[in-house]
Amino acid sequence: DSGVTQTPKHLITATGQRVTLRCSPRSGDLSVYWYQQSLDQGLQFLIQYYNGEERAKGNILERFSAQQFPDLHSELNLSSLELGDSALYFCASSVDGGPERVAFFGQGTRLTVV
Amino acid sequence: GNSVTQMEGPVTLSEEAFLTINCTYTATGYPSLFWYVQYPGEGLQLLLKATKADDKGSNKGFEATYRKETTSFHLEKGSVQVSDSAVYFCALSDQKSDKLIFGTGTRLQVFP
User: Which residues of chain A form beta strands (DSSP E)?
Assistant: First the structure.
């Protein structure tokens, strides 16, 4: 158990809908990362937050947004869903987000868009 | 930009065989390098890391040496087990940004 909790584990929704994925980082970790893992794209970095502020942005679509709350949990919002958004979405956390830090991953949320 | 290139999988081996999974990187400065492993149905777990040139990371019989001259961080294990079957990801952490950049992953299948 990595200590990072993601909910829900599975999500099935229709095209055009909006969903919210939730992540609770390890106790004491200030930095949260979101990744998308799909068969054709591999593991893609989406966005990082550190202590409530956005720190780095990757290949995140405009239809997607995220935030980190004062209690450090984070949510990833996906809207106007398309079939191609079906993927595993991972959250990871680390203590301080520095270059030598180890990221601890949750078990992921599997999103299926039908 | 920074990137990580891994050998294509799957890598199929018999138990007790020697394993090498190649990883090369492109980066400015001196990144930290990592190997993560993903077992079926689970999230990624750190396997080992190295933070400077010539460092050797090791864990659970796996080793990788940070080679700056060849920009490589190849993963090796002397004798694989069926339980090592998983997807292995090489990654780097850029000093200038906080991104953790992953390779595409290499699936390892070990048969008894």
Answer: 5-7, 10-13, 19-24, 31-38, 42-50, 53-57, 64-68, 74-78, 87-94, 104-105, 109-113
Which tokens belong to B104? Answer: 């595409």
- pLDDT tens digit sequence for B41-95: 888 999 999 989 999 999 999 999 999 999 999 999 999 999 999 999 999 987 6
Alpha-carbon distance of A6 to A22, in angstroms, equals 6
* The token pair that represents A90 in the structure block: 């991972």
How far does the CA of residue B27 sit from the closest CA of chain A (Å)?
13
Closest chain A CA to residue B100: A45
The nearest CA of chain B is from the CA of A98 a distance in Å of 6
**Sequence-ordered list of residues with C-beta below 8 angstroms from that of A61, at least 6 positions apart, any chain:** none
pLDDT tens per residue across span A36-93: 998 777 888 899 999 999 988 888 999 999 999 999 999 999 999 999 999 999 999 9
Check if A34 contacts B (Cβ < 8 Å): no
What are the beta bridge partners of residue A10?
A110
Sign of CA dihedral A107, A110, A111, B3: positive
